[in-house]
Design brief:
binds N-[(phenylcarbonyl)carbamoyl]-beta-D-glucopyranosylamine; 14% strand; six-stranded parallel sheet; alpha/beta; 23 strands; ten-stranded mixed sheet; 33 helices; single chain
Length: 839
């Protein structure tokens, strides 16, 4: 007699087999098995990529039982889920993270070594998935790590770009962009789910019709349809069973569309159309803080938003008969305005596809959404031309007009006669060509709006979103950013983590405030000695990397003064350069004077179309060329531009820094998160009162922070009075000498034209007020040098910085979002008992 079939999810799970077992022998067997059966290679012919792939599958297998159990638990318990919508997730490499979060580092290392291989080499073989530009995308990655670690039901929704952020090469000192083919060898971490594909409409027109109840309804007749295929990547929590999905959508042409064209005999046309559809998820736009206004970008935004909302609604309807209570099962976060079209798409789905009336749909939408703003730069606020919007999303434009009409009616009632207020609040900018203002849409459609550092939120309330704050003060809330201590301490600085573990155990990894217990060691000579040795070790490793990649020899005992981040005028990499040139001028005047040996390290990508940012890179390399080779300098100053700054390079850099450069014009950097990574790894900060620097200084203690420069208020006041950079130039001989040297072609083989645009921009505009802050910066650096010369004092300050950064764990940030915005609770995942061996 045949056995009755047991439903698959009720099958007793075999907990110790070649796909789940975690003893060294099993791991070795699984690794060999994957090499043979998945890579199709004998060990003798396998490449490093094969080994990497085989090991990645070995780890993914070990995540799967927890992953499936997590999904099943969420369904059964019908929990509220956080949906984090972000056009970017800058995840960094997965393998090291999985090893850490599965607690498998040591055993896998042993298994790999006993197989005659080197784990570090294999780890280096993983491509760094660059599906983001910078801070905003990396923040999303830290957030999904913390969500899983805190056992919060969550899904990250985004785009599976075939090409991530370009690889940066440096040719003749200039940035060159090389495409990033990160999927070339396949991606072992993701699982595609074509069964859950969804259709997305684009273009066309709308029409009215009567439904069966005799009501007027609108339907959208699209000109084109594309299909979104979801690819899921596991996001494991640290020291929990929770494994949440990161669900990224890939665009594919819809079959019936091609079929029609094909049947009509238009084969070329069908293929061309197919390719056009598929370009939607081809490439990440490499601009940060400068919107592009390109049709394809709007298509990308709408594509992933529509896929994600349809998926969220499908999930809800599996457990609930209607969408009236969607906000009880879903909290949707908009990571900047890139997904803000979701407000209109949700309204459309609820009304046109699920028969909800306007008022109910609007209530549900507002209760479901919340919005994070990441920028104060006015030019970076996204707006889409009404013409383009209408062409691509005709139904959404109608809905936005209707939201606007109702919203402005309310405003007129609340503030009668204030026409200026109306035109500022309107979702449509009508000052010239008409635009849809995405930040306004996001504010109106959300129940919470947050900035990403205290000052940033305050400035949003005061300036950028002032009028909305006046209407709804209760909507605005600050959520200071954070970063995950798993990747940004444990993974990147294992020796520091080991020191912490040896004193207080591993609890700090989930509760960073435990590091405060270590403050009692700040005067303990042994501890301080170990601290210095760890820093020196990390600096030696970076020096080795610099030698191998740049051919520059740097002294690990010199001060490592580092600025790594996107290249942008407001971030003022060129202020750093002005200071370096000032030091050089001093040496040229008096080659024998004492200066503290210093290695200045830069890294960061410029948007390909941002000429001034690219010129700053060229100037950095040109200054490096001259100074590094000048015999008068005698190696006391070295300048290094590390190309292709990305997450994995960051992991080498932050732990090796003595000094972290956070020198943006006050009021311009929303938060910064690199500043947090540096400080957590024991770097001192030289910085302005901008973004989260202010809070870092508060936490570290003001005596442990090198502060300089105008405040945001002073910047505004100085501008208002009429700022003239030439006054600073003429009255400051040091500044004049620096600028004159650049202008004279000293760093450009006598070519006076090369850096003229940069010099002129400073002399005649200086929008970011480098000249106003120059002297304060140079003076502050003198303090830094003096302090660095007293190694005991420096060590003490470094230790206190690192130990006092608990506030900047993204776990703290996420707890606040959970309690104050999302209203979600942890849901622990119970696993069946593991065998003794795994315990
Ligand atoms: O977001 C950054 C801000 O500049 C930082 O101050 C802040 O710390 C982080 C995280 O909140 N913004 C971005 O990184 N923005 C982008 O990358 C971006 C990308 C595309 C379009 C516009 C901006």
């Amino acid at each position: 007699m045949t056995q009755p079939l047991i439903p698959i999810d009720q099958c007793p799970i075999q907990i110790e087999d070649d796909r789940t077992g975690t003893n060294v022998e099993t791991l070795k067997r699984a690794f060999a098995d994957n090499l043979f059966y998945l890579q199709g290679k004998y060990e003798s012919l396998a490449t490093q990529d094969d080994f990497y792939m085989a090991l990645a599958y070995t780890l993914r297998d070990r995540l799967l039982s927890r992953w499936l159990k997590t999904t099943k638990t969420y369904m059964e318990k019908d929990v509220k889920v956080v949906y984090y919508l972000s056009a970017e997730f800058l995840m960094g490499r997965h393998m090291g993270n999985s090893l850490i979060n599965l607690h498998l580092y040591d055993r896998v290392r042993q298994a790999v070594e006993e197989s005659g291989l080197d784990l570090d080499e294999i780890l280096e073989h993983e491509p760094d998935p660059g599906l983001g530009n910078g801070g905003l995308g990396r923040l999303a990655a830290c957030f999904v790590d913390s969500l899983a670690t805190l056992e919060i039901p969550a899904v990250g929704y985004g785009i599976r770009y075939e090409f991530g952020i370009f690889t940066q090469a440096i040719r003749d000192g200039w940035q060159a962009e090389v495409p990033d083919k990160w999927l070339r060898f396949g991606n072992p971490w993701e699982i595609a789910h074509p069964d859950q594909a969804v259709e997305v409409k684009l273009g066309g027109h709308t029409e009215m019709y009567h439904n069966e109840k005799g009501e007027y309804k609108v339907r959208w007749i699209p000109a084109n349809r594309v299909v979104g295929i979801p690819y899921d990547t596991p996001v494991p929590g640290y020291d929990t069973n929770t494994v949440n999905p990161l669900r990224l959508w890939r665009a594919e042409a819809s079959d019936d569309f091609n079929f029609d064209a094909f049947n009509a005999g238009n084969y070329d046309g069908a293929v061309a159309e197919k390719m056009r559809s598929e370009t939607i998820s081809k490439v990440l736009y490499p601009n940060d803080n400068t919107p592009q206004g390109k049709q394809l970008r709007l298509e990308q935004q709408f594509f992933f938003v529509s896929c994600s909302l349809q998926d969220i609604i499908r999930t809800h309807l599996l457990r609930h008969p209607s969408l009236h209570n969607l906000h009880d099962t879903a909290a949707i976060q908009l990571n900047d305005t890139h997904p803000a079209v979701a407000i209109a798409e949700m309204m459309r789905l609820l009304m046109d596809e699920h028969e909800m009336d306007w008022n109910t749909a609007w209530r549900v939408t507002q209760k479901t959404f919340s919005y994070t703003n990441h920028t104060l730069l006015p030019e970076a606020l996204e707006k889409w031309s009404v013409g383009l919007f209408e062409y691509l999303l005709p139904r959404h434009l109608e809905i936005i007009y209707e939201i606007n009409r109702r919203f402005l009616e309310d405003v007129k009632r609340w503030y009668p006669g204030d026409d200026n207020l109306i035109s500022r609040l309107s979702l449509i900018d009508e000052s010239g060509e008409k635009y849809v203002r995405m930040a306004n849409l996001a504010c109106v459609g959300s129940h919470a709006v947050n900035g990403v550092a205290a000052l940033h939120t305050q400035l949003l309330k005061q300036d950028t979103l002032r009028d909305f704050y006046r209407l709804w003060p209760g909507k605005f809330i600050n959520k200071t950013n954070g970063v995950t201590p798993r990747r940004w301490i444990l993974m990147c600085n294992p020796k520091l983590a080991e020191l912490y573990n040896s004193k207080i155990g591993e609890g700090w990894l989930k509760d960073l405030s435990q590091l405060k217990q270590l403050e009692k060691y700040v005067d303990d000579p042994d501890f301080c000695q170990q601290w210095r040795e760890i820093k020196l070790h990390n600096k030696r490793q970076l020096a080795q990397y610099i030698w191998e990649h740049n051919g520059i020899e740097v002294d690990p005992h010199s001060m490592f003064d580092i600025q790594v981040k996107r290249i942008h005028e407001y971030k003022r990499q060129h202020l750093n350069l002005l200071h370096i040139i000032a030091l050089y001028n001093q040496i040229k005047q008096n080659p024998d004077q004492h200066i503290v040996p210093c290695t200045f390290i830069f890294g960061g990508k410029a948007a390909p179309g941002y000429f001034m940012a690219k010129l700053i890179i060229k100037l950095t390399n040109s200054v490096a060329d001259v100074i590094n080779h000048d015999p008068d300098v005698r190696g006391r100053l070295k300048i290094v531009f590390l190309n292709n700054f990305n997450v994995s390079l960051g992991q080498r850099i932050y732990p090796a820094a003595d000094l972290s450069e956070q020198v943006s014009t006050a009021g311009k950097e929303a938060s910064g998160t690199g500043n947090m990574k540096f400080a957590m790894n024991g770097a001192m900060t030289i910085g302005t009162l901008d973004g989260a620097n202010i809070e870092i200084r508060e936490e570290a203690g003001e005596e442990n922070f090198f502060l300089f420069g105008l405040t945001a208020q002073e910047v505004a006041d100085t501008k208002a009075k009429g700022y003239n950079p030439r006054d600073y130039y003429s009255s400051n001989p040091s500044l004049k000498a620096v600028i004159d040297r650049i202008a004279a072609g000293y760093f450009s083989h006598g070519d006076k034209e090369l850096f003229k645009p940069l010099v002129d921009s400073l002399m005649y505009h200086d929008q970011y007020m480098l000249f106003a802050d120059y002297q304060a910066y140079v003076d502050c650096h003198k303090q830094v040098s003096k302090t660095y010369s007293d190694q005991d004092k420096w060590t003490r300050m470094s230790i206190l910085n690192a130990l006092r950064m608990a506030k900047f764990s993204s776990d703290r940030t996420i707890r606040e979002y959970c309690n104050e915005i999302w209203n979600v609770q942890p849901v622990p995942i119970e696993m069946e008992e593991y065998s003794q061996e795994n315990a």
